[in-house]
Design goal:
8 helices, 6-stranded mixed sheet, 5-stranded antiparallel sheet, alpha+beta
Length: 370
C-alpha cells in the first residue's frame, strides 16, 4: 500500500493523540455554557463526557474539533495549542448522531471522501476503503447507497469514514442515540473492539449512563458547564462525590439524617428511624446534617442468600414490579423515606407482596456520604 499510509489497525504505543483542556470556557450571549473545564486525556484513552442536555458536554467537544471558538482557556493536542487552528487542519475524526453521509455517494465514495480531500491516489483510496469496511464489519458494501442501509449500518459507514485517514483522535457526539436499544448495546461492544484495534484516542459524548459505563476507560461527569467528577467507571459508580453524580450515574437511594459520630473513617448517623453507617471521605461534626447514598441492587431482604450484615432497616413494601432479570421493589421506611431495592429474579426467589413488612440489609462499604 502506498501513499505513506500504514495499515489502519496497526495499533502501537503512543498512536493516539493526547488532549489537554485548561480552564476552557464558552459563553453564548453572556451565558456560560462551559465554565472553566480542565481535563487531561491520555494517548490512546477512551474518555466519555457524560451529562444531561445543556450541561456543556457537546459544546466542549465542538471546541476540541474546532467548530466552536473558546471564550477563554486553551486546548492542546499533543501539547500544541490548536485554538485558532481550523477544523480541517486538526486531523481529527468526527462522528455525529445523524451520520452526515452524502446520500448521492456510494458507501465507498463516502468513506473515501476524506482521502480524496487529502490528495490520496485512487488505488490507495480503494484499498483503504476495503480495510475500513473490514474493521467496521461491513465488507462488500462498497457499491451501496446510504438509503439502502439500516441505521446501524449507516453508523458503521460513518465510523469507517472517520477513521479511514488515520486520525490520532476520534471525537463522537451521541453516535448511537438514534438507534434502538438492542442495536445500541451491540454497537457499544463494537466501539470497544474498534478502540482496541486502532489504539487511537476516543473522546465520546453521551447522556446515556449505561453507554458510558460500558465503553469508557474514564468518565467525566459534566454538569452546568463544569466537571462534577472524573474517574474510572467503577470509581464513579461506587464512590460518587455528590448527590448529582450519584443520581445521574445509575439509580441511588438517599437517606438524610444527623451525624452521631465517627468510627475509623465510617460515619455513624441517625437516618430513617435507624442507626446507619457509611464510608466518609473526611470527619463530620456530631450533630451535622448528612445524606447517605446506596445503590438499589446492593440491598437485600433479610434472610435472603447473599444478604450482607451491615446496615439494617425496617420497611414496608409499597410496590413490586417484575422486570425479567430483576424484581424492583419500592419500600417505605418507618419515617416515610422511600427506597428502591432491586433483587435478582429466579424461579426460587420468593416474591414480596405489597403491604408486607420486611427488614432489608446492605454493606456499610456500599454506603457513601454525598
Amino acid at each position: 500500500m502506498d501513499g505513506g499510509l500504514a495499515p489502519l489497525a496497526a495499533a502501537r504505543v503512543g498512536r493516539g493523540a493526547s488532549v489537554s483542556l485548561v480552564d476552557l470556557e464558552k459563553r453564548f450571549e453572556g451565558v456560560g455554557a462551559v465554565r472553566g473545564i480542565s481535563l487531561e486525556v491520555a494517548s490512546g484513552e477512551f474518555l466519555t463526557l457524560l451529562g444531561p442536555s445543556g450541561s456543556g458536554k457537546t459544546t466542549t467537544l465542538m471546541m476540541i474539533a474546532g467548530f466552536e471558538t473558546p471564550s477563554g482557556g486553551d486546548i492542546a493536542i499533543d501539547r500544541q495549542s490548536v485554538v485558532g487552528v481550523p477544523p480541517h487542519r486538526r486531523n481529527i475524526g468526527m462522528v455525529f448522531q445523524n451520520y452526515a453521509l452524502f446520500p448521492h455517494l456510494t458507501v465507498a465514495e463516502n468513506i473515501a471522501f476524506p482521502l480524496k480531500q487529502r490528495g490520496v491516489d485512487r488505488a490507495t483510496r480503494a484499498a483503504r476503503v476495503v480495510e475500513a469496511l473490514q474493521l467496521v464489519r461491513l465488507p462488500g458494501y462498497e457499491a451501496r447507497y446510504p438509503r439502502q442501509l439500516s441505521g446501524g449500518q449507516q453508523q458503521r459507514v460513518a465510523l469507517a469514514r472517520a477513521i479511514v485517514f488515520q486520525p490520532r483522535l476520534l471525537l463522537m457526539d451521541e453516535p448511537l442515540g438514534a438507534l434502538d436499544k438492542q442495536l445500541r448495546e451491540s454497537l457499544q461492544l463494537e466501539m470497544r473492539r474498534l478502540h482496541a484495534d486502532l489504539g487511537i484516542t476516543f473522546v465520546y459524548v453521551t447522556h446515556d449512563q449505561e453507554e458510558a459505563l460500558t465503553m469508557s476507560d474514564r468518565i467525566a461527569v459534566v454538569n452546568e458547564g463544569r466537571i462534577a467528577q472524573l474517574g474510572r467507571p467503577e470509581e464513579l459508580y461506587d464512590r460518587p462525590c455528590d448527590r448529582f453524580v450519584a443520581s445521574f450515574l445509575g439509580e441511588s437511594n438517599f437517606l438524610t439524617g444527623t451525624v452521631r459520630g465517627m468510627e475509623a473513617g465510617v460515619v455513624v448517623a441517625d437516618c430513617a428511624g435507624a442507626v446507619l453507617r457509611a464510608v466518609a471521605p473526611q470527619g463530620l461534626a456530631v450533630g451535622s446534617a448528612v445524606t447517605l447514598s446506596t445503590r438499589p441492587e446492593r440491598m437485600r431482604f433479610d434472610g435472603v442468600s447473599g444478604a450482607a450484615e451491615g446496615n439494617r432497616l425496617r420497611t414496608t413494601v409499597t410496590e413490586a414490579v417484575f422486570a425479567g432479570e430483576r424484581c424492583r421493589y419500592l419500600l417505605r421506611a418507618e419515617d416515610g423515606t422511600m427506597l428502591v431495592l432491586k433483587e435478582p429474579s429466579s424461579a426460587t426467589t420468593r416474591r414480596r407482596a405489597v403491604g408486607e413488612v420486611a427488614e432489608i440489609t446492605w454493606p456499610v462499604a456500599d454506603t457513601v456520604v454525598v
